[in-house]
Design a protein that fits this description.
41% of the residues lie in helices and 17% in strands. The protein is of the alpha/beta class.
Length: 263
């Protein structure tokens, strides 16, 4: 079994309707991918995302506002009922991105702080995006007592010091197709060091398709390519890595385990 721990199913051009989404999820199933976490990035898009994946019992949800979408607004009071929905297993995607949007730094920080507080309040883990904001990301997580709920630094591209600090806070490290890119050497060095009980794999589809699918729209089935690459990179059997990352997923997101009766 394999799990795509971070994807945006509602943004796939190849799945504009439920029938086409069903085909894509079935294609993933044929490659051993059984479960998917569909991640919200805009508060205004949450309802539409829910409608698109309704009825797919192997799809879990999150709710949050991405740091590059903070200009669209965050109303933490109206987000809270969404955060309490049974199928919502995490808060996010939230975090900080100073690489693409340095001009909204203060607003990003405010939105991130609010979502960390919400996660602690509803006792659900965080899905964190961070780029060129290492110190501020860690500071907000520490000050907000994010260690009480844990979470994941998704699509990880930072250094080992950042990974180690996050792991010490109870966070997991998720690796995407970026690790397969030609310029992924530094990231590979980090991923080799991540403890096997703190590692997840993801597609971040429809973005960042791994080798050998570069240039295509990414899709959940391609998480198999990420997992196979990471297993070889770490000197582990694919079956071992798949089992470990799946177990890690359900440990991090216990509500997902409850939904499918794994507890």
């Amino acid at each position: 079994m394999l799990i795509d721990s971070h994807c945006h199913l509602d943004r796939l051009k190849a799945a504009p309707d439920r029938a086409s989404l069903a085909l894509l999820l079935d294609a993933a199933k044929q490659r051993g991918v059984d479960y998917f976490l569909c991640v919200n990035v805009r508060q205004q898009g949450f309802e539409q995302m829910c409608q698109q994946v309704e009825g797919f019992d192997n799809v879990f949800l999150s709710c949050g506002v991405h740091p590059l979408d903070v200009k669209d607004g965050l109303d933490i009071h109206t987000m809270r009922p969404n955060a309490l929905l049974p199928r919502v297993v995490a808060i996010g995607e939230t975090g900080l991105d100073y690489f693409y949007a340095d001009e909204t730094k203060l607003l990003q920080q405010q939105c991130f702080e609010q979502q960390v507080a919400l996660a602690v309040d509803v006792n659900k883990p965080l899905i964190v995006h961070t780029r060129d904001a290492r110190q501020d990301t860690l500071a907000i997580l520490r000050q907000g007592h994010a260690d009480k709920v844990g979470g994941v630094l998704h699509c990880f591209t930072e250094d080992w010091e950042m990974a180690k600090a996050a792991i010490d806070l109870g966070f997991y490290i998720s690796v995407s197709g970026i690790v397969t890119f030609k310029n992924g050497g530094d990231l590979r060095t980090v991923i080799r060091k991540v403890p096997k009980d703190r590692l997840l794999v993801e597609t971040d589809s429809p973005y960042l398709a791994p080798v050998p699918h570069r240039g295509q729209e990414n899709q959940p089935a391609f998480v198999r390519d990420v997992a196979e690459f990471v297993a070889e990179l770490r000197g582990e059997a694919y079956e071992e890595l798949a089992a470990n990352t799946s177990a890690n997923f359900f440990k991090l997101f216990p509500q997902a385990a409850e939904l499918i009766g794994k507890n």
